[in-house]
Amino acid sequence: SIGSGDVIRGSAGEWLGGFSKFIGNGNVYVAELWGVLEGLKIVRRLNFRAVESHVDSVVVVLAIFGNGHGSSSYL
User: Fold this and answer.
1) Can you give the pLDDT at residue 31?
2) HSE of 22, CA atoms in CB hemisphere, 13 A
3) Were both Cys, which of 32, 54, 71, 74 would link to 60 (CB 3.0–4.6 Å)?
4) What's the rounded Cα separation, in Å, for the pair 31 and 2?
5) Start-to-end CA span in the chain (Å)
6) Can you give the residue ranges of every domain in the chain?
7) Distance, CA of 8 to CA of 71 (rounded, Å)
């Protein structure tokens, strides 16, 4: 079983929101990707136009950005 969670902070480090989510079966990469997705949903609801995300996994970063065209074969 895997889960994901994140904290959304403002530019001064103040808490703006957060979440925890039970995902079920999967691996650490799936959990990280869910974390990115859920975090982006929150900042979109908060109407942010610019965000900075910190991700622990290079594989996940490469899966998201790939070759610069939004596709990757890392997963």
Assistant:
1) 92
2) 2
3) 32
4) 7
5) 19
6) 2-65
7) 26
Check pLDDT > 90 for residue 75: no
Contacts of residue 3, Cβ cutoff 8 Å, sequence gap at least 6 = 20, 21, 22, 23, 31
* Element of type H or E holding 65: helix 58-65
Q: pTM of the entire structure?
A: 0.75
Q: Does 53 score more than 60 pLDDT?
A: yes
Tokens of residue 67, six digits: 């070759």
Pick from 51, 62, 50: nearest CA to 6? 51
DSSP percent split of the chain into helix, strand, coil, nearest 5: 35, 25, 40
pLDDT bucket at 49, cuts 50 / 70 / 90? confident
Query: Are 52 and 40 within 8 A, CB to CB?
Result: no
